[in-house]
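General statements about sequence and structure are easier to judge against a single worked case. For one protein, we set the task of working out the structure tokens from the amino acid sequence alone. This step matters because it turns folding into a mapping between discrete strings. The amino acid sequence and the backbone structure tokens for this protein are reproduced below.
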Amino acid sequence: MRARRDSAIRLLKTMMVASVVLPVALFSYASWVSYQNAFSHADEQLAANLDIISEQANKVFQSVEVSFASVRAIVGSMSDDEIKAQEQSLHLKLKELDTVLSAIDAIAIVDKQGRALVSSSIYPVPPDLKIDDRDYFQAQAGKDAGTYVGEVVTPRVRPDPLFAVSRRRPLQDGAFSGAAIVFVVPKVFTEFYKRLNEAQPGVVFALSRRDGAILARYPSPPGGVNRYPPNSGFLTSVTEKP
């Protein structure tokens, strides 16, 4: 009789422990599976977002490349004096070009001192308009920087911020003779990011240079931040996995 009672007590204890342990184990397993699925879904969504914004950025910069090729075809090996003598006709050609390429805000050609010779957005160009203090000009003046993407700046002749992409105008002997500049407004990107954000509230979309300078971001960074700190997780990741 005592043995049967002890056996019943052991069974009861086992059932009591099981009634606690099994639900906890099942809940833990379900939580782990849910976490893994959520993490996997987040990775997939991130990859999809990166594909979308990368494709849009590539199209914009392809328009920039088309602009440079067209400027070469229009200007060729013209000297500064020849460009100034034909400023009006060149202005109209460049204006037509940046109208066709909707992602482009303006196109300009500057001499080796950084003085604007012709612009698609202004005619005539003010004689005192210079951009020799801008990073996108200085990068080309020192050496051939290839296609250089400048930081976002406030232009001297327009209210909206923009960034410039520059390329050298080399002479036949390779000497520096100035640069061709293509201007892009960040709004081209932020309006696109805004539409993506409306479908995914809480997600931040951004385009930046390798050095952390932010070219476009939506939502806008708090406090007018325009650069990722050197020790930020983002730049650390870029350094570790270029």
In short: DSSP finds six helices and seven strands in the chain. The chain has two domains: 57-185, 186-242. The mean pLDDT is 85.
